[in-house]
Amino acid sequence: MTNFPHINLSNRGTVVAGKTMQAEPALDKPWQLIEGSRNIRCLACSHRCVIAPGRTGHCGVRKNEDGVLRLLVYGHSIAVNIDPVEKKPVYHFLPSTPIFSIGTIGCNFECDFCQNWDISQATRGVTGDIEESAMGRDLPPQTIVDQCVRRGIKSIAFTYNEPAIFHEYAVDTMKLARPFGIKGVFVTNGFETPEALRLLRPWIDVMRIDLKAFTNEFYQRHCKARLDPVLETIRTAKQLGYWVEVVTLLIPGENDSDDEVRRMAEFVVSVDSNIPHHFTAYHPDYHFTSAGRTPLRTILHAIEIAKRAGEKFVYSGNVVDEAHGSTYCPQCNATLISRQSMHETNIVDLDAATGSCRRCHTAIPGIWK
């Protein structure tokens, strides 16, 4: 069994060499003005960019305007849809319900296999401010909430590109949505800082986190990022009380070896064996087209490895596979939710009112109502 480092989330101070070091004061925003300068340290993601006045961070949308961080994409959405929640994919959260889904331009990663590269990488190489016309439609928080209330939609997904980079836009939307019982979902690459996760927690219920691989080399080569902050986010999110689901896009020859899949699964189990883990099929896109589409047999093999490692809820994705896309009771194996596709989901033996199996009454982890 692989050993994983413990992450201390305490705000009560840290003991170092016999001395107690007091924790930093609680933040009210995901950035700080660096003392003695007009530079900003952005805390929205683990790049922790130091942004000089007039410049933007790595994502291209968080700008220092004379010592104040301005979110260039605030109130602008490039992608707006009402999706089935299963499309995110999130399987243990309000099944078979619509979710209002929005995304902006920009990203803190540079994944060479990105399937939404036309929006996520739209800020790369831009000099000066982004043109208003490139940001998409005006969509202020109040308009999003009004549309959800009018249509009876009970959740909002911040998705399509990386939501960590438009933290303030998401939070302000959810502050208006909360009084109507609307829940929030982050579909994220998991590069948030612990500080940002704490700020988000009152407003976001679900962290659907990409675990793209289990080597730092993969993250550096394919994403211009690092693995360790993603592992920290998964642990931190679970400890802070988010509902967490993990997705791994399996790319042939890159992250699908038995050893890597096993270590991935062991890590997830070390956090919580009840975390749903989705293994999804890759198709060639953007700058990385040398690998072929992921065969179904690779997905099924990964699922078996993950189950042997102790994961209780493992799913296939981007393939036609009802058997491994459905949810089963871990106690009696009853079919709780049948998924023929993301558009064909049927609740069978799940009692959503109690979050339990109708046959044996075993509690099923998730957010069901």
Please describe the topology of this protein.
Layout lengths: L13 E3 L2 E3 L9 E3 L6 E3 L7 E2 L10 E4 L2 E4 L4 E2 L1 E6 L13 E6 L13 H4 L16 E2 L2 H11 L3 E4 L8 H11 L5 E6 L5 H7 L5 E5 L5 H8 L4 H13 L2 E8 L7 H14 L5 E5 L14 H14 L4 E4 L4 H4 L1 E2 L6 E7 L2 E4 L2 E2 L4 E2 L12
Parallel strand pairs: 10-12, 12-13, 13-14, 14-15, 15-16, 16-17
Antiparallel strand pairs: 1-2, 3-4, 4-5, 6-7, 8-11, 9-10, 18-19, 19-20, 21-22
Helix pairs in contact: 2-3, 7-8
Main sheet specs: 8 strands, mixed
Note the total helix count: 9
Instruction: Name the beta content range.
Output: 15-25%
Overall tally of structural domains: 3
Q: What is the number of strand segments?
A: 22
The poorly predicted ranges are 1-23
Strand order of the largest sheet: 9-10-12-13-14-15-16-17
The oligomeric status of these chains comes to single chain
Structure write-up:
This protein has helices spanning 117-120, 141-151, 167-177, 194-200, 216-223, 228-240, 258-271, 296-309, 322-325, and strands at 14-16, 19-21, 31-33, 40-42, 50-51, 62-65, 68-71, 76-77, 79-84, 98-103, 137-138, 155-158, 183-188, 206-210, 243-250, 277-281, 314-317, 327-328, 335-341, 344-347, 350-351, 356-357. It has 3 domains: 30-71, no CATH class; 76-319, Aldolase class I (TIM Barrel, Alpha-Beta Barrel); 326-369. It has an 8-stranded mixed β-sheet. Strands 3-4-5 form a 3-stranded antiparallel β-sheet, with no helix packed on it. It has a 3-stranded antiparallel β-sheet with strand order 18-19-20. By secondary structure, the protein is of the alpha/beta class. Helix 4 links the parallel strand 13 (183-188) and strand 14 (206-210). It has 9 helices and 22 strands.
